[in-house]
Please model this.
Amino acid sequence: MKVLITGGAGFIGANFVHSTVEAYPNADVTVLDKLTYAGNPDSIKGLDRVELVVGDIADPDTVDPLVAQSDLVVNFAAESHNDNSLKDPSPFIRTNIEGTFQLLEACRRHGTRFHHISTDEVYGDLAIGEDRKFEPGDPYIPSSPYSSSKGASDLLVRAWVRSFGVEATISNCSNNYGPFQHIEKFIPRTITNLIDGVRPRVYGTGEQVRDWIHVRDHNTAVWDIINKGRIGETYLIGANGEKNNLEVTQMILQEFGREPSDFDHVNDRPGHDQRYAIDNSKLVIETGWEPEFKNFAAGLHDTVEWYKANEPWWRAQKETVEAKYAKSGQ
Ligand code: NAD
Ligand code: DAU
Model:
C-alpha cells in the first residue's frame, strides 16, 4: 500500500506518519509537506519506509505524480492557527481551499482514495453550559478565516464525491494535544512558558471550553474511518474531553508545582469561539472506535514530560512566537 500523507511534518500528520509505520508494515509512506513555519522534518526523521517530498499541495505539477503513484491520500496539510488567520488570511485561502482543490482534482484523474482531515470549528461554536454537542449534519457556520477556509475545503470534498465519484471521506476533530504540537498553540505554549519560568497567558475570561483529545486517538479514528467508513460520509472525532481554558491552565500549573492563580489574563481573541463539543456516536457505532487516552490529566502529564525532554525540538521557535503574541497584547 502506498500512502501519501500531506502535512506529515506538522503536529497531527507527523504523529500519523509514526503510527502508520508502526501499525501497517506493508505501507510505504510519502510525505508531501511545504515545511512552513509549522512543519519540522525532525518530527519524522529516521523512520523506515518514509520519504519526504518538500512541496506545496496547491501546486498541481507537484501533486499530480505523487497522487498517481498512491493508493490513498490523507490530507493533513493546512494553515491551522486561528490567531494567524486573523492577522493574514491569505495563506489559509491558498493552502486550505486551493490546495484541497488540487488534491481532489488529482484524485479524480487517478481514481485515488482520499481522506480529508478537518475540524469541528466548521460548525461555529456552542454556548457554554448548553446541553448540546456538534453532530455531523449540523449547519456550517464558521467564525474565523481559518475555520471558514476549512469549511470551504470540506464542501469541495462533498461536491467532488457527488459530482465526480471521488472516493472520499471527511473527519472533523476537536482540539488535539500531545507530542510534536507547535508551541504557538495553547497547551504547548503554556508548558514552554512554564519551562521558561514565564506566567501562562489566558485569553479573556478563560471560560471558553475545548473538547480535548489525544493526537494518537485522533489518528486511530482516522484509520478506522479509512478502513470502515462509508464513502461520502462525514465523521466527527472527539473523546468527551471538555475542559475550560482556566482548568487546563491550572492543571499545567500544578504539573510545575505553581499556584493556581499564577497566570495572566491577556487580550481576548476577536470572535473567540466559546465552546466546542463533539457527539462521536456515528464514529463509534459505525467503526467501533474507542479512545485509548481516557485520562486527560495523565495524557497532559506525558505531554509536559515530552516538552521537557525535547527542548531542542521547540527552542528555536520560542522567541519568534512570543514576539508575535506580544504585538497583539497576548
Ligand atoms: P500544523 O500547523 O501543525 O501542521 C500543518 C502542516 O502542513 C505543516 O507541516 C506545514 O508545513 C504543512 N503545510 C502547510 N501548508 C502547506 C502546503 N501548502 N503544502 C504542503 N504542506 C503544507 O497543523 P495540525 O495541527 O497538525 O493540523 C493538521 C490538520 O488537522 C489541519 O487540517 C487542521 O485543520 C486539522 N485539525 C487540527 C486540530 C488541532 O487541534 N491541531 C484539530 C482538528 C483538526
Ligand atoms: O477545535 C479544533 C481546532 O483546535 C483546530 O481546528 C485548530 O487547528 C487548533 O489550533 C485548535 O484551535 P483553537 O483555536 O481552539 O486552539 P488554540 O490552541 O489556538 O487555543 C485553544 C484555546 O486557548 C482557545 O480558546 C484560545 C485559548 N488560548 C490560546 C493561546 C495560544 C489562550 O487562552 N492562551 C493562549 O496563549
